[in-house]
Amino acid sequence: MSVDLITAPTRIVLIQKKDIMGFFNIVTRIGAVLGAIVLVIGFAGAKGAPQEAAVAALAIALAVIPYVLARCVQMSRDELLAEQRHKDILAALNPDRKPANPAVQEVTRVHLG
Fold it and tell me: Which residues, 6 or more positions from 10, have their beta carbon under 8 angstroms from its beta carbon?
């Protein structure tokens, strides 16, 4: 199996962050299901519009809050990966600059001689 030296540390970061993302994806799905259940049961037992509004707000909160947290984690992960890739590209283009990833220095030395 061939491993690209430039992206190997990025893959390690992805593997570590996939566990976190998997957890947040599961929590988001559970929140959506709980929100739907609360909405159906709440509407069935509501005796007026104010109760229906309160149940709807609770159901939305159960679904939206975990989703927003998951998106925040995903966006921070994507930003971290993009920053790492930019550093690696800059290091590969400028051999005098110390690379963020030591593997880039080896690849640059091999390609540039």
Answer: 81, 84, 85, 88
Q: Which amino acid is at 112?
A: L
Please check whether residue 77 is in contact with residue 15, taking contact to mean a CB–CB distance below 8 angstroms: no
Q: Which residue type is seen at 32?
A: A
Mean pLDDT for each 10-residue chunk of the chain (113 residues)?
Answer: 46 58 91 96 95 96 95 87 85 69 53 48
* Nearest-angstrom CA–CA distance, 16 and 24: 14
Q: Tell me how crowded residue 4 is: count the other CB atoms within 10 A of its CB.
A: 10
How far apart (Å, rounded) are the C-alpha atoms in residues 108 and 94?
A: 9
